[in-house]
Amino acid sequence: MSQETWVLASHNAGKIKEMEQILAPFGIALKSARDLDLPEPEETETTFRGNAALKARAACEATGLPCLADDSGLSVDALGGDPGIYSARWAGEPRDFMRAMQRVEGALNETGASDRTARFVCTIALARPGEGVSFFEGEVVGDIVWPPRGPGGFGYDPVFQPRGHDRTFGEMSADEKRQLSHRARALDAMTRAEFGS
Asked: Which CATH number fits domain 4-195: 1.10.3720.10, 3.90.950.10, 3.10.450.50, 3.30.460.30?
């Protein structure tokens, strides 16, 4: 199988490793924006799809190679979809996701809503030179729990319990989470469309 080089428009080491493992069996050698010293464009769009496309196009134009980018976050129904595309920004600078989780819990308490439905959403954009951008989406529905549970995962994982399970993402192993995650579902949609499997 001949190898094709793609670029992942990300500086996130965990995301890079996860996608390398998924794409390697399809003959894709993945380079990251970090490997290539590409700048991170400012995310100025108002949707997951818009921000993913912005990052994929910027990397594609800079390298002339097929480029993948994802934008993902936590959307809480009772908060009108917040924090949504601002999920990382809710953690402030420097990033403090305990503060972000407390902010979600505080906002839920202020609404007085009993509905704690939330979803992790991921949109992957694939930009190829001279072509348009293809989009692949994944979502996992669950509930916000409090207090946070489990030392695993990252971000909001300790307060997100996927439906049909009695543990949060923070209490699951990396492999267990990967089988359920929004990113895995979006990548699965992409590999089926691109590689027929």
From this structure: 3.90.950.10
Per-residue model confidence as pLDDT tens digits over 18-60: 788 888 899 999 999 988 888 888 888 999 999 999 999 999 9
Task: Name the nearest CA neighbour of 52 among 138, 135, 132.
Answer: 135
| Distance of alpha carbon 119 from alpha carbon 161, whole angstroms | 10
- Report if pTM > 0.85: yes
C-alpha separations of 155 from 7, 10, 15, 56, 87 in Å: 24, 16, 13, 23, 9
Verify whether residue 70 is a known catalytic residue.
Answer: no
Give the tens place of pLDDT for each residue, 84-140: 999 988 988 888 999 999 999 999 999 999 999 999 999 999 999 999 899 999 999
How far CA 4 is from CA of 13, 31, 59, 171, 175, in Å, comes to 21, 11, 16, 36, 26
Q: Which two tokens stand for residue 84?
A: 């949504």
178 CB neighbour count, 10 Å cutoff: 15
Q: Of the listed 35, 37, 71, 188, which one is catalytic? A: 71
Closest CA relative to residue 38, chosen from 12, 69, 59, 67: 59
Q: What is the pLDDT of residues 135-155, one digit of tens each?
A: 999 999 999 999 999 998 889
